[in-house]
Design brief:
- By secondary structure, this protein is α/β, with parallel strands linked by helices.
- It folds into 3 domains: 102 residues, no CATH class; 121 residues, 3-Layer(aba) Sandwich (Rossmann fold); 96 residues, 3-Layer(aba) Sandwich (Rossmann fold), CATH 3.40.50.
- The strands form 2 sheets. A 5-stranded mixed sheet has the order 4-5-8-6-7, with no helix packed on it. It has a 3-stranded antiparallel sheet with strand order 1-2-3, covered by helices on one side.
- Helix 4 crosses helix 5.
C-alpha cells in the first residue's frame, strides 16, 4: 500500500511537471512573440536586454505615484512594488504599452545623430566665432584706414586748393577760383565742386564757362595737383586743343615754369606748342597703310653745340625737357 501511494504521488508529480512544461513552453512562445513584436515596433532586442531590478522598481514606483488609471488590487501603496498581483502587473503593462504607443517609434540612431549634429554645431560655432573676430578686426583696420585717408586727403585737398587759386590767377591774368567739398562730413565719397571767376565775369560753376575757359581751368587744376607731388616726367594729351592764341601763350608760360624740374611729353597739333619743344616726333604715312615714325631736334645747332661744350659734352636738363609728338 505504501508503494502504491508513492507511485500515485510520483504520477501526480509527473503530471504536474508535464503541465508546468506545457505552461513554460506557452510562456516562452509568448515571450518570443512579444520580443519579436517589440523588436519590430521599438527596434529593441530583448534577447540582449539585461534586467535591472533597481530601474524596474523605480519605474513601478513612479507609475504608482502617477496613478494614471491604475489602482493596485492590494491597496497598499507602501508595499513592496515587486510583489504585485498578476492582474496589477497586467494593468501596469497595458498602461506602459499605451504610453509607448503614444510616444511613437523609437529612433535608435538618435544618439549617433545627436553626436554628429553636436560635432557639426561645434564646428560651425568655431567658424562663426572666427568670422566674427575676423570681421571685427577688418572693421578696425577699415576704420583706421579711413581715419588716415581722411587726414591725408584733407591735407592734400588744402594744398591743391591753394595751388589751384594760384595757378588760375596766373593762367587767366587775374580772377579767382576755388574748390569746395559737396559734403564736408563725408569727404572720401562726396564730389568736389570747381568754382571759377575769370577776369570780368561773375563767380560761377565751371560747367557754365566757355570751352576755352573750361580747358584753362582744367589745366590750372592739373598743375595744382602736379605741384603737390611733382614727378620726373609728365604726359599731356592734346590739352591745348581747345585753346586760342592768347590762352596758348599762357599755357606755354606755364610749361616754362615747370620744365626745369620735370620732363614733359606732349601730344599736340598746335604750332605754337610745337615751336617750344626741344624734340619733335611725328607719325607719317608715306605708303598707304604703312606708318613711319620721324624724329627731329628743334634746338638751334650752334646754340646747342655751345651749350654742350659748356656742360662738358652733355646737354643740360633744360635742353631735353620738352618732347612733343604729333599724330
Amino acid at each position: 500500500s505504501e508503494l502504491r501511494r508513492l507511485r500515485d504521488s510520483l504520477g501526480e508529480l509527473q503530471g504536474r511537471r508535464g503541465h508546468q512544461q506545457v505552461r513554460e513552453s506557452q510562456l516562452q512562445m509568448k515571450i518570443d512573440n512579444l520580443a519579436e513584436h517589440i523588436s519590430r515596433s521599438y527596434l529593441v532586442d530583448l534577447r540582449a536586454f539585461v534586467a535591472d531590478e533597481a530601474a524596474f522598481e523605480k519605474v513601478l514606483r513612479a507609475q504608482l505615484k502617477r496613478g494614471a488609471g491604475f489602482q493596485p488590487a492590494t491597496d497598499r501603496q507602501d508595499a513592496d512594488v515587486t510583489n504585485l498581483a498578476e492582474a496589477d502587473l497586467e494593468k501596469l503593462i497595458l498602461d506602459l504599452r499605451n504610453q509607448l504607443d503614444n510616444m511613437g517609434p523609437v529612433n535608435l540612431d538618435a544618439v549617433q545623430e545627436y553626436d554628429e549634429l553636436e560635432e557639426r554645431y561645434k564646428f560651425l560655432e568655431a567658424q562663426n566665432n572666427d568670422l566674427t573676430n575676423s570681421r571685427r578686426d577688418l572693421l578696425d583696420v577699415i576704420a583706421q584706414i579711413n581715419s588716415t585717408t581722411r587726414k591725408l586727403f584733407g591735407d592734400t585737398f588744402v594744398q591743391v586748393r591753394g595751388n589751384f587759386r594760384e595757378m588760375f590767377a596766373e593762367l587767366f591774368g587775374g580772377g579767382r577760383a576755388d574748390l569746395s567739398l559737396l559734403d564736408e562730413n563725408d569727404p572720401l565719397d562726396c564730389g568736389i565742386e570747381i568754382i571759377a571767376k575769370p577776369p570780368g565775369k561773375q563767380l560761377q560753376s565751371v560747367s557754365l564757362l566757355s570751352g576755352g575757359e573750361r580747358a584753362m581751368t582744367a589745366v590750372a587744376l592739373l598743375f595744382a595737383i602736379y605741384m603737390v607731388r611733382p614727378s620726373p616726367f609728365c604726359i599731356l594729351d592734346e590739352v591745348d586743343a581747345p585753346l586760342d592764341e592768347s590762352n596758348i601763350n599762357c599755357f606755354i608760360r606755364m610749361l616754362d615754369r615747370f620744365v626745369c624740374q620735370s620732363q614733359f611729353i606732349i601730344i599736340t597739333h598746335n604750332k605754337r606748342t610745337i615751336a617750344k619743344a626741344d624734340v619733335l616726333y611725328g607719325v607719317t604715312m608715306e605708303q598707304r597703310g604703312v606708318s613711319k615714325l620721324v624724329g627731329m631736334k628743334l634746338t638751334a645747332p650752334r646754340q646747342a653745340a655751345s651749350d654742350v661744350a659748356s656742360n662738358g659734352g652733355e646737354q643740360s636738363p633744360s635742353q631735353r625737357r620738352l618732347v612733343l609728338a604729333t599724330r
